[in-house]
Write a structure and sequence with these properties.
This protein has about 170 residues and is α/β, with parallel strands linked by helices. It is about 55% helix and about 15% strand. The protein has a single domain, classed as P-loop containing nucleotide triphosphate hydrolases (Rossmann fold), CATH 3.40.50.
């Protein structure tokens, strides 16, 4: 077995489906955002505000390399982790990338009242959130489409999505 990396827009279900998939695989689950916060000693919004997005991306790369070195696991990537070539190289060399997608309207509704998502400003209306997510998807879609496997994450029961992924990757990693 190897590492399964979950990618997708913020709110696509990586942090929800990931632990379920990890349990099915008998592996640990690692959330890259949590690892970044541990390394930086501050929450992600504070990193963006005080140090900037570039420093956050540097922390993200370090956390990814460390997580990959742990071996077999399920890792939820941050929404923008694929934007750096060095991250894509680590992922490609150590595991299988799985893209979770859902309709933007659903993701907007899921994240509308979430705080702590620096690229999704607090206080947005649903229409504004949909627009922000559409812009992010446009910027990242080609990177997400490089994932060998894509799964919808709009099932009201995320356990079903985790099971579907588990069955599809059996024997691949």
């Amino acid at each position: 077995m190897a590492i399964v990396y979950l990618c997708g827009l913020p709110g696509s279900g990586k942090s929800t489906i990931g632990p379920m998939l990890a349990e099915l695989r008998g592996q640990p689950f690692l959330d890259l955002d949590h690892l970044i916060e541990e390394r930086a000693g501050m929450k992600i919004p504070a990193i963006f505000l005080e140090l900037g997005e570039q420093k956050f991306r540097d922390f993200e790369n370090i956390a990814l390399v460390q997580a990959a070195s742990r071996g077999d696991s399920v890792i939820a990537l941050g929404g923008g982790a694929l934007e750096r070539q060095d991250n894509r190289d680590v992922i490609g060399a150590s595991g299988l990338l799985v893209y979770l997608h859902a309709p933007i309207e659903l993701i907007a509704a899921r994240t509308l009242n979430d705080s702590g998502r620096p690229l999704l400003p607090d206080g947005q209306s649903l229409t504004e959130r949909i627009s922000t997510l559409a812009d992010l998807l446009e910027r990242r879609k080609a990177l997400f489409d490089e994932a060998p496997l894509t799964f919808p994450s709009n099932d009201p029961d995320p356990k079903q999505t985790a099971l579907m992924i588990f069955e599809a990757i059996d024997g691949l990693v």
